[in-house]
Structures are given as C-alpha cells and as structure tokens.
Amino acid sequence: MSLGTFLIMRHELLLIAAALSVLIAEIFRNPDKKRSISLFSIILFGVITIIGFLPSPAGSLFGGMYISSGTSLLMKNILNIGVLIVFIQSATWLKKEENSEKISEYFLLLISTLVGMNFMISAGHFLIFYIGIELATIPIAALAAYDRYKNKSAEAGIKLILSSALSSGILLYGLSMIYGTTGTLYFSEVAKLFGNTNLQILGFIFFFAGMSFKISIVPFHLWTADVYEGSPVNITSYLSVISKGAAVFILIIILFTVFPVIIATWQKTIFVTSILTMTIGNLFAIRQQNLKRFLAFSSISQAGYILLGLIGGNQLGMASVIYYILVYIFSNLGAFGVVIAISNATGKENIDDYNGLYQTNPKLSLIMTLALFSLAGIPPVAGFFGKFFLFTAAAQKGFYLLVLIAVLNTIISLFYYLLVVKAMFITKSETPVESFRSDFSTRFALGICIAGIVVTGFASIIFEVIRNLSFGV
Amino acid sequence: MDILSLFVVIPVLTITAILLLKDTHQVRMVSAFGMGLQLLMAASLVFLYLTARHAGNNDEMLFVKDYLWYKSLNIHYAVGVDGISVAMITLTSLVVFAGIFASWEVEFLRKEFFVSLILLATGVFGFFISIDLFTMFLFYELAVIPMYLLIGIWGTGPKEYSAMKLTLMLMGGSALLLVGLLGIYFNSSPDGSRLTFNILEISKVVIPLPAQRIFFPLTFVGFGVLGALFPFHTWSPDGHASAPTAVSMLHAGVLMKLGGYGAFRVAIFLMPEAAHELSWIFIILTSISVIYGAFGAIAQKDLKYINAYSSVSHCGLVLFAVLMMNQTAMNGAIIQMISHGLMTALFFALIGMVYGRTHTRMIYEMGGLMKVIPFLSVCYVIAGLASLGLPGLSGFVAEMTIFVGAFQHPELFYRIVTILAVSSIVITSVYILRVVAILLLGPTTNEHFEHLPDAKWFEKISVVTLIGSVAAIGLAPFWLSTMIGTSLHPIIEKIISLNPF
Question: Fewer Cβ within 10 Å of end Cβ, chain B: N or C?
C-alpha cells in the first residue's frame, strides 16, 4: 500500500491531524491568551472544510473495510459545513470565564466525534461501522457534561452515555445475528448472503432499533429531550444536527446497499416508525416551554419526515434525504444560533422570555422566523424545497397515505413554530429581552445559516449535484 | 425579463425599497407608487393581450416563458396567461392598489405592515401567472403565510386565535393540495415518458380514472378550503372579522379567489372525468355554502361578520358554477370572482372606514350615518346593491350568467340544486337592505356620531377605484365576458371531448 492510497482517507487523516494540532497548540499557547486556541481551531477547521471540496479519488482500503465514494465524500463535506458553523457559534460561549480552561478539549472532542462519523459513513464492514459509531458517541457524552458544575449538564452526560451504551448493545446483538447467519461482516458479502429467514429479520430489527436510538426515532427517543435540555446549547445543536445527520447518512447507505433484499420488511418498519416519530414529536413539542426541549422534540419530528425519504429505496429518496439534511443543518443551526445568542447575552431560554423580542431585537427575530419557517417547510425558504422533495420521493413509490399523514403533521408543527413567532412579534411583554448586539462570530455564523436557508432552495444546482451522487436500491 | 415575471419582480422591488427606507413616512408613498405601477402594468397587460388576440394569436396561453429549474424532476418556472388569468391579475392589482390607500393611516410598525401586505400580493400575482404546478403551489403558500402576521399584529378582537385558526386551516388545505399535486405529477405521463408539472402538458393526457378518483377530491378540497367550501369555511368569518381593513380586502377580494381559480384550473381542468363523476358531492357542499352563508349573514350583528358570511355565500357560488362544467356557468364563475373580489373589497374598505370613525362595528349601536357621512354611506349603498345583484352593477352580470348556465345542466338533480341556490339572491337582499336600513337610515342614535368627518382624499381614491370598476363591469360586461369566454372555449371543448356526457 503506497502513501497515495492513504489519501483516499483524506477527510479522516486531516481531521486527526487537526485534533492533534489542537492538542499541541494547547501546550505551546501563551497562558495569557487563553482564547487564541479557539480562533486557531476555527481557522484550521475552515481550511479543512475547504480542502474537503477538492476532488478526491474514490476507492477502498483495508481490503474493502473502508470505502470512499462520491456519495460518502458529499456527506462528509455536508457534515463539515455543519460542524464549522457550530464551531463559529461556540466562540462567544467559549470566551466565558468558566470555560477558559477547557477550550482545547471542546475542539478535540468534537473533532474526534466527527472522525468517528466519517469512518462510519465510509464503512464497508460492520466492524468499522461500529467503531465509528462509538467514536462518534462517547466523546459527545463528555461534552454534554461540559458544564460539569451544573447538575443538569452532568445528568445529561450520564443519560447520554447510558442510553447510547444500551443502544450499542442492541445494535451489536443485531450484528451478531447477522454475522451468525451470513458468516461475514463485509457489507458487500452480507448483501449477497442475506435472505429472508426469521433470524435475519430479527437481526435487522435489532440493528434498526440501535440506529433508531442515534436518530431518536420513536419509541427510542426518550433520552433526547433531557439530554438536549441539560447540555450546553452548542452541544445540543451539534447533537440535533450533526450527530443525527451522520446517523441518517449511514442508515440510508446500509439500508440501500446491505439490506435491499428485505426492502419490503424495512418499508413496513419505516412506515410505522415514521408516523409515530412525526406525530409524537410534534404533539410533545406543543407543550414545551424551554426552547431547547422545544427544538429537541421538533428535531424528533424532523427525523420522522426524513424517514419518508428512506422508505422508497429510490435514488430520488436518497437525494432528498441528503438535501434535507443540508437544509436542516442551516435551518436548525439558524434557530439554535438565535437561542445561543440570547442565552449568551441574557441566560434566557424559555419561549415566554421571547415575548416582544421583535421590538428590541428585530434582526434576531427575523432570523429566527426564517429558520422556523424553513423547519416548517414554508416557501420561499429552503425547507419548503427539502420537504417537497422528501414527499415527492415517497409519493414516487406510491406512499400517498404516508405523505398525507406527513403533510398533516407539518400543519401541527407549523402551529408550534408559529407560537414562537407569535411570542416574538405579537405578544407584548413588560420585560422583553434587552436590545443587544452580538459579537462578530455569532453574526457571522447566523449569516452563513441565513444565506444557506435562502440560497439552497433557489439554486437548483445543489440538488442536482446531490442527486447525481445518490443511488437507489 | 418577460412581461409576466415583472408582476412578481415589481412587488419584490417595492418590498426591497421599503426595507431600505429610513423614514417611515415615505413607506406608504413608495408602496402606493409600486402598486400604482403594478396597476398600470395590469392595464397594459390587458391591452397587449387583447391586441395579440385580435392579431389572430390563438394559443391557449400567451406570453409564455419557460425556464428549467430542477432538471431531474422536470420542475420549471413557467408563466403564461389567458383571458382568465389576465382578468384575475387586473382584479388583484385593483384591490391591492385600493388596499394600500385604505391602510394609509396605519401607524403601528408601518414598514412591516406594508412589507407583509405586498408580500401577500406577490404570492397572489405569482399564483395567477404560473402554469407550472410547482411554482403555483409555492406562490400559493407564499400568499397564505403573511396573513398570520398581518392579522396577529395589526388585527382587532381575538386576533391571535383568528390568525392561528386561519393559517392552520389554509395550510391544512394546502397539505391536501400537495398530495393531490404529487398524484397528478406522477400520473402525468401514462405512457412512461417524462413526468411534468406543466398544466398545459398535463391537460393533453388523460390521467387514469382510479388515480383521478383519489386525487380530484384532494385537490378540489385543498383549493376549496381557500374558497370557503362548506364545512371548511369556518376560518373565514373569524379571520375576516379580526383582520385589519386592507387585509380583509385582499383576503376576501383576492385570496379567496385563489381557491376558485385553482379548483377550476387545476382540479377540474386536469381531472374532468372524476370531476364529472364526483361533482354531485361537491355541488351539495357548495349549495350548503351558498345558502348557509347567506342565512349566516342574516344572523350576524357585526358588520365584518355579515360580510364574511356573505363572502362564504358568494364564493360558494363560484365553486358551484365551476362544478356545472359548461361554458356559460364557468364564464359566470369567473365574472363572479372578479365582481365579488371588487365588491367585497369595497365593503371591507368601507367597513374599515366606518369603524375608524365610530369605533364600533355592531350595527345596532349605529344609525343614521347617511346624514353624517354621506359619501361613505352612498358608497356603502352602492356596494350593497352590487352585492344583491342589481342590474347595472357587476353582481347582476355574474349571478345571472351563473344561474342561466347552471340551469342548462341536463340532469334533474343539478337543476333542483340550482333553484335552491337561486334563493340565496333573496336572502342576500334581506341582509343587505337590513344593514342599510339600520346603519345608514333612520335617526342618529348616538350624539357622538353627529360630527364625524367624511372620507379623506386617500379613502376616496380607494373607494372610487373600486366603485368605478364595479360599475364598469356592470355597464359593459361584454369585453370581459368575451375575453374570458374565448379562453374558456378550448377548455370546455377539451372537457367535453375527453368526456362525452
């Protein structure tokens, strides 16, 4: 194996190098300028994101355990964009006094999880996939407990690690059955040897349940709200966007390449779970007062919509899922960006606190409105196009009933998104959030999100590129 | 840039200009200028359209422009107009223009108000010029969503409740519509060639009947919600009553017409077989709308509620006529849309102006206004007469055509229903004349009302524009009905040829 073939893993190598250089920079940094490390990390990561877009050879390594293709590169690049926005959004928060001692840990751990996700997406073997998924989860638990002096944050860390351990156990049990019935863990060989026996179906169900934990699909969603509420807002946004996106990416790859034989089975599974996920996520979101919990349940219901892209097993479905994740990254990070900005400035995180926000902070209110409209799928922002393509993909395979249930669910979701809009624009408040000006990094991150929300829909080229790189069963 | 896209570009530019303004006093001038320009554009569009027709251009749609947008799904940004859409565009620009002047005195968050109002108008204009189902749907939703803020922020009464109810019900309609449109799309090429969203191309194929039976009701009800189809009309009274003046005008005048236009252009035009088969269900529902709306208006005491129920009745008549599926009735339906749009906008403008003076909308709290504010009162009487279908005003032409057309339907059931629906004319005159009697005539009951100022200049502009148009249609209906009729002709031919009943 020559050095050149290693470049197939360019994304992962660069990220590992970045993680290590953050550690080394931590040793050599000037003790008086504790914050320089976050600027260094952000710029480094920005460069990596740009390098990721350069053309890269496709191929496989380690005897097919690691596969790189146009699709996986695209997915990694999308995740990189999301993580870059998360990094920029966290700069203000990391400046706080209580965080100054652990800035490099923040970047190190997040980049490690991203490495895990990248390995997971590029996996050609269930072992690599499993290592990737663990690497993507465990550091996050440490980050959820980042505010370790707060009870809720520590609780979130414990809850995350316990529930992900449980889900890993379930996942592994499913994999063991798959191994037991096929005698291999290579994706390509499992796909050939997989049949329709009961044990194999059971193995698949366990596998799917394990993945459902990661994507927080009902009925495996119970950890979501507590962890999201307890974690620092930046980690919550990372969990709800990047972790979820990566898990969806690998789920769709595995469903389409490893389990095409039992497509009828997983279509039924997805049909039921998708309806449950949308409906329960939406109904619970209505009752939430804390915006983090609110966005947690909204992200659960979003996962339900995303499943509509998976169900058809068609090329359009994969394209719409990848596209939707991209749109979702911009929209959800836009909404979280506003929550972060207000939380940093005032510490307020409840919907009631947003009453009368438009009078004092019109720009933030408008950004929040656009982001929520994009999540709800209102034109002309990108969420509308994303949802439309998801529904089109499901309708293409004749799942009209599911589409109908999904669009009715978007009406429920519109209701609670409008509740936030109502708080900001209509409800008057005696003590609104005071007028403040966010610093450069927050505004820059929000700018990227808004540009993404507006441009992604109208620029059809983005969808076409994604579609050309997608594949069906 | 083609001429039709200008109808979307001008409002967008106006919005941009308003957003860039520092001084809020200039906002309304800029809005009036932008929408005045739009009105001129509409007038020249009518002129260009008629010239092209006279020159012998017999294409189904004129000024067609087609840009490929999403290649893999064959989604286009495609625009084109026929006589019907030209008429609707003209209606929209008239109502928006009048609406700007009717809201001249909005003080609270003036910039945001005009931006939302014009954004709503953008959606409506875009909807009427589109001939691609995707862009049509996009503009449809774009037109609905500003309503939430417009009613929620600047409304009166239980505004938050009404705004939420209206938005959710209309979006619920668009949810059904989305499924219907996807169904049409995936059945748009039975021979397996390229799927399309283009209305003209879809109209050339026959969508398989089993698919039509599923997707026609979805599409029709989806649009019907916006057209106040019973039992999905309940958003309308609350929404209209809580909305600020200009929003009621635009909403009842134009937005509800999106429902009628869509039901006709998409549901019936593309799926005529199912429309014929299932029309009896919807005929019953629309007849209930017509009669129930009229009775509902009698029972109301609030001026806006009276008008909102009257709109339910009149818009029900539009859907009723469309479902009769013959040339005369459909012609009447389109004229009714125009006529009702102008007339109801006029009503809501006047109600807003009266409310601005008396601070009440309850008819029993007012009286004898004719002596105090003669200009507005006379205009109110004119609007009322147009509404109850007095010859010489637009309502007569529309309703006459509709009922003549509807009665031509060969089947007994449809004729009986027509007779029932005709009774709405009588009921209409009851509630109109009752309001006129209580509100305008008789002694002035409240001494506070004795020194109310009459209409100001901007109010006069708003009202006179609308009255002029109402009278113009009533006195010279033929240029309008010919313009509509020639465009309807190929559509009716197609419906009949596909479906010899």
Answer: N
The pair phi, psi for residue A217, each rounded to 5°, is: -95, 135
Is the pLDDT at B1 greater than 80? The verdict is no
**Partner-chain contact B72 A410, CB within 8 Å:** no
Question: CB-based contact (8 Å) between A426 and chain B?
Answer: yes
Could you tell me if A418 lies within 8 Å of chain B, comparing CB atoms?
yes
Alpha-carbon distances of A180 from A125, A132, A210, rounded to whole Å = 15, 22, 18
Identify whether the C-beta of residue A89 lies closer than 8 Å to the C-beta of residue A340. Answer: yes
pTM of the model: 0.92
In the numeric block, the tokens 């004229």 are attached to: B335
B9 touches chain A (CB under 8 A): no
Q: How far apart are the first and last CA of chain A?
A: 32
Given a contact cutoff of 8 angstroms between Cβ atoms, the answer to whether A11 and A52 are in contact is yes
**pLDDT per residue over A113-168, tens digit each?**
999 999 999 998 999 999 999 999 889 988 888 887 888 888 888 989 999 899 99
**Peptide bond before A219: cis, by omega within 30 degrees of 0?**
yes
B178/A380 CB distance under 8 A: no
Q: Where are the alpha helices (DSSP H) in A347-399?
A: 357-360, 362-376, 382-396
CA A30 to chain centroid: 35
Touching check for A407 and chain B: CB below 8 Å?
yes
Residue-level pLDDT at A1: 58
- The domains of chain B are located at 6-498
Residue A281's SS3 state is helix
Q: Select the residue of B148, B153, B183 nearest A418 (Cβ to Cβ).
A: B148
Quick one: closest CA in B to A465, which residue?
A: B72
Q: Which amino acid is at A251?
A: L
What are the C-alpha distances in Å from A428 to residues A22, A357, B239, B474?
A: 46, 9, 21, 47
Amino acid, res. A465: V
Asked if pLDDT for residue B102 goes beyond 70, the answer is: yes
Compare CB distances from B72 to A379, A391, A464 and report the shortest one's residue.
Answer: A464
Q: Is A305 on the interface with B (CB under 8 A)?
A: no
Q: Give the Cβ contact number of residue B444 at 10 Å.
A: 16
Q: Which pLDDT score, from 0 to 100, does residue B99 have?
A: 86
Q: Report the alpha-carbon distance of residue B252 to residue B351 in Å, rounded.
A: 13
| CA B28 and chain centroid, separation | 24
Contacts of B448 (CB under 8 A, 6+ apart): none
- Cβ contact, residue pair A400, B72, below 8 Å: no
- Residue B433 pLDDT: 87
The token pair at A419 is 């509740």
User: Higher confidence at residue A212 or residue B104?
Assistant: A212
The answer, yes or no, to whether residue B500 has pLDDT greater than 60, is no
Query: Which tokens sit at B332?
Result: 């009447």
* Contact between A408 and B172 using a beta-carbon 8 Å cutoff: yes
pLDDT of residue B498: 61
